[in-house]
What does this fold into?
Amino acid sequence: MSRSLPATPTFEALKKQAKQVLKAHKDGNVSCCATLKLLSRFKGKSDAEILNSALKLADAQFALAMDYGFASWAQLKMFLDSSAKVRKGVILNWKDIIGDKPNCRIEGGDLVVEDPKGKCGLHVEFGGMSWDNYRLGVDALIETNASQKMVAANVQFCPRGTTVYCQMFGDVGRWGNGFNLWHWDIEGKKEIQVAHVVNAIALNTWNRFEIIVESPSVGIVFNGEKVIDKRLAVPTYGMPGLIVNYGSDARVRLKNLMIQFFQPTRSQVEEYENDAVTNWTNYKRREIEAGLRKSMDDNSL
It folds into this structure.
């Protein structure tokens, strides 16, 4: 592979490139030969032999796709379609996110997280380990059926699994209300509070809670307004986590969980198309091959 896709590739631009390769071949221009030598029938052939051979547009497209690292022109187009989709933003499916987690049920398009009886209502990770540039948000409604003797009902997004916490607390509970940004230190021994913003988050009201991740920076957005924006001392790439009702006896409703990538890479698009278990397994296997992890039983970040 010798070519790299631009930050915002389009299929129309690549179709023009394929036609340029075809034209260069027709004109006897050797600039096309490096790409065309990726075709099996031109393997080991000289530039002159390639230029004297017949060539169709489909051949130029196939060679160009391989030059970009794809197995076929169709696979390249599929990537471009998916890349354009995630740049616009996509609503994630609750069934894919929560699986068979307890304390949860789906009502229409809403996810309802029930009273966890002193435990965590929902703690799940999704996506892929290469995710490092995106906007992730959800509409949240905290109901007033809770005593809140422990902590406030809350919604947390966690870039890089559970090493960074972006927290939203409702207008009740001993932890106060508003937003927190925490992260573990590099050694994973101590939690560090980066920011706390007091904000009266009304109960029984839908609010939009979002995070903006551009590793190592994280922003928290509430109803369209950025309330926290910090550059962290730890990386923020990895599977995002969603935690709801940590130690609360409230009921929380969520809807419209959306991910939007700013500049999706091939790895990120492929991870978006896969489930989280597959992504985590593939990540560990790559680390083992690189000598960075001893075994598949090692689940450390």
About this structure: The chain has a mean pLDDT of 87. The first strand starts at residue 90 and ends at 91.
